[in-house]
């Protein structure tokens, strides 16, 4: 009984996928240039909302990272690639905006709130941990993913086993990014503040690790996994995660309607498979990365 109903539902699912594929080719939706998202040309929004403004404009400016493999990485092509990029495309697609309508702006950790406050970007999707300090300046929609802080070292290092190694040897230097939660969190694990070296972006930490200016890099596990994957075996991750980093989409403070739109759009994406596709085509390709399920969103405020 169970088996046959599973068979039916699998067949039904296959048929549904086939219909969707046909609709995508011939119908109003076009998913040509978006990885996971089908552009919704028929959405209607209340007048005066951010959604209506963006839909009418047919374009959106989005902040993301440009140097984080798996989440936001800009190579030789114009557009960055990664899970955050795909999540942002899903949000834009729901507003009827395709890839050509998106302008990507690099937003290193320390400038995310400022770029939102200044209206330079409509949203930030950039491995952006939801926390109370940041909520004083912006609103978060999410979480849409939960990461955790970890430590990365050179592959031939056996002395550093986790964050506790830094107190045991005060000569060790660890790199993180200014304005990030990991740069704050690591403080309690250090014998002296001078053990922490900060740059504006994580690729500079990876370079400093490679050239032995520092002994470790600390940030979210998934960012480190991306850097390990790109390191040709030079780096490895050690120890367990020791914080929780729930990622949210940053928007203008108090734009509750836009926040609710983002939460609803991501919920739909988790139901129709585009959230999972966004993952499997990006960060999910990195070894050791687990496919997530969309966390329950916080109330928008
Ligand atoms: N998720 C952490 C943060 O938002 C670290 C990653 C980053 O710097 O983007 O601060």
Structure description:
A five-stranded mixed sheet has the order 9-8-10-7-11. Strands 4-1-5 form a three-stranded parallel sheet. The protein has a two-stranded antiparallel ribbon with strand order 2-3. The protein is built from eleven helices and twelve strands. The model is unreliable at 1-34 (pLDDT under 50). Strand 2 and strand 3 form a beta hairpin. It folds into two domains: 18-145 and 246-285, D-Maltodextrin-Binding Protein, domain 2 (3-Layer(aba) Sandwich), CATH 3.40.190.10; 148-238, Periplasmic binding protein-like II (D-Maltodextrin-Binding Protein, domain 2, 3-Layer(aba) Sandwich), CATH 3.40.190. It is an alpha/beta fold and 301 residues long. The longest helix is centred in the N-terminal third of the chain and has 25 residues, at 2-26. Helix 3 (83-93) packs antiparallel against helix 11. The protein has helices spanning 2-26, 50-57, 83-93, 112-117, 132-135, 165-168, 181-185, 202-210, 221-229, 256-272, 274-280; strands spanning 60-64, 67-68, 72-73, 102-106, 123-124, 138-147, 149-154, 174-177, 196-199, 216-220, 235-238, 245-252. Bound molecules: glutamic acid (GLU). Glutamic acid (GLU) binds at residues 109, 126-129, 177, 180-182, 219-220, 223, 245. Residues 109, 126-129, 177, 180-182, 219-220, 223, 245 line the site of glutamic acid.
